[in-house]
Amino acid sequence: MWYCKCPICRTEYEHNPKVCTCGFAGLISAQEFAPPHGGEEEQGKAELFSIFKFAKHVLYGKIEYRPTHIYEDHFEEYTLIDAASELRALAVVDRAGTPPTIARDGLFAFDRSVRALILNTNRAARLALDESMIECLLLGAAFEGFEDGKFHPYRPLRYLHVHGDNPHFTSENNVLFDKKQTRLIYYSPLKPEAAYTVPRSVKTLAAYSFRRPRYLKTLRLPKGICLEKNALWLDEESPISVEYY
Ligand SMILES: [Zn+2]
Predict the structure, then answer these.
(1) pTM for the complete prediction?
(2) Does the residue 13 lie in any domain?
């Protein structure tokens, strides 16, 4: 059958509409949705990129998108969220406010359909993405930090982006930094480049910031940079050559 399936909400159409009911534009029939060289892996990469692009439009309010239903525990000084029901590929958690809202360990742990997350709570637990299958993470303008300063997604991320108005963090080509770019917090492990040069402004590589980067072969670091414990958490089988400049 000649049909297309929305990669965000997974609605199937017999004839492609220009825009899906969820707001995703650019639907292509399943048969046509294949890159020039074909192959499932390439198709999967193209689909993930289209999900990331859509998520960025949602992040900046260019597309209206229904927020994800979340379960909240209210306390006097903060609100905790630790579960959400979401069947779409993009989940939107936009709950920053007063008192602060904290994403607790295991957000989306059992919702394997979720591939991308817009997280705009005030804070997140270190293991907020524990057991989640998220591949793209977008942090909102109100996001202030990870509890105890560390960040451990369960699955290696491919895409990472911070809202340009966020006063605490910035991202550049899927690498997460503090706003002044003095501390590199997380290098998306599925970033495809074979070489990466840490900007000269960076004084510290955070613990586990390079966590089994799959494609990285050469890492260039500015002289005098400080590496926190386990900043480079590498596979023994795929060593990385580290150079200083
Ligand atoms: Zn859709």
Answers:
(1) 0.92
(2) yes
